[in-house]
Amino acid sequence: MGNRTGSSEIKVLIHETSVYKHYVELKEDALTEQGFFDLAKVQGLYVAGAGQFLRNLRKKNKLKQEDIAKIVGVTRPQITHWEKNKCRLPLQSLVRIAETVDISRDIIYKLIDENEIFLNRRIPVRIEKIKEIIRFLRPYTDYVKVALTKCSDAILNHIKSILNVKFFFYTKGNNNNQAQIASTALNSFLTTFFNYIKYPKIQLPLTDEVELWYHKGIDLKRALICPLLQTDGCIEPSKQSYLIAFQGNNKNLHDYFIDAIYYEYKKLPSSYFMPAATVYRTRYTISNSINIIDDVLKLAGNAKTSPAPRQTVENYLKESQPHLNYLINASATEQKIALRIWASAEGYIGVKRNKTYIYPVLEISCTHPVLVTQLQQIATKYGIVFNIKRLKNWSGFVGLSSESIKNILKFLKLGGFIKGVKISSKSKYHEGIDKDVLLLGILEFKKRELENCHLKKLTIQKVHNRINRIIENREYKSEEYYISHFSSEDMMS
After folding, report:
1. Strands 118-119 and 145-151, how do they pair?
2. What is the reported pTM?
3. Which residues in 248-284 belong to E strands, given as ranges?
4. Alpha-carbon distance 163 to 155, whole Å?
5. Domain boundaries, the chain
6. Whole-number percent of the chain with pLDDT over 90
7. Fewer CB under 10 Å: which end of the chain, C or N?
8. Which fold has domain 46-120?
9. Contact present, 181 and 166 (Cβ < 8 Å)
10. 82-95 confidence digits (pLDDT tens)
11. pLDDT tens, residue by residue, 298-313
């Protein structure tokens, strides 16, 4: 049997998330030549009132009841019961009998469509009857039920009238009504004739660097996944197990996180850069994150780097503690990438002024005593000398700080900040500016200050304003330029 209406003509968007578009699509050969659903493919369908049709069919073809019984593998008395409409006749048996004597199944489907004979379930015979409601019907994989989502009362009533069904577990909310239909036949009908498919909205890779690192053999777990989870990520407990999430308002870091997990584990998130309270979150479901969580805990000890709200320090320290041992033993490239991630996610770039000149400030927030010490150790390996900043908090540490051009240039040689990571709204002067661009603007102002003495007399507020103007007018130059310029001018201290 051919499909008169091609499956490409019946493709309806059911549901859309931040990661996927879900469609329902008519399968190939779902319809007969005359456009009926080929209902004989559906298990468990019976017809009533077909006795006279069956008897006429048998007599017209000069067949005995015994002959019909042999065709469908039943007893002769069963044929008698069918012809007298004393019991229901399986639709598949009726179609098999008809086709044995060269009667098209379309004849039977037409009789059903015209209510000459009746199905035991209100199942559509033609696509037109279900076309407008198919997007609301979702067969479950583990129950014999159908879910209805985002239905108005009018749609729900229309579905009732077409399918003659009752709803269970009905809930009503802001245009998000939900109900379920306990119908094995309807479930079988939907799975027989329709494909439920999803297409990713995320077009990977989302970044230019991660795929390149992966193909160069970089361990993305050490270089990206663990650092991102230990900065702006978390491993969250759920009812059954754990799932992972990354949060923050810098979309680029979410993109690095997604690319890293995809290339390392071939998995996409369940949600991508979705607003949650004051931040955006990317999450992986339990099934998507078990292997990732196991690897992170094995490599990094934990992604929880400070006590939870209302948790005592004593209780927190009883938990498995985070560390950077996985970086201490990593390759140089992996260490450099991880430092860039820490600086991009938890870093601050700005300027201070003393009596004679301004100087750049690079800081990385980190309150965990083990992490802050190990970060300092790794940075020192590449010539970046950080001081540990202390504060009266749970650990006594607040992070790392550097106030020299020499360290800034060393950081630039590592690759600097991840491109597109922006200054947060907490900044008094530079909110929304890319961190890597702000750094270049600061270096350009520093260069001009050394060349023009009157700039040394500007107040710190005016300095920030000048830096913003440099950035707005794109008067800054490349990273390589400033590395070369300040090195040749012997201004590295």
Report:
1. unpaired
2. 0.85
3. 271-276, 279-284
4. 12
5. 1-37+128-201, 46-120, 210-303, 332-488
6. 77
7. C
8. 434 Repressor (Amino-terminal Domain) (1.10.260)
9. yes
10. 999 999 999 999 99
11. 999 999 999 999 999 9
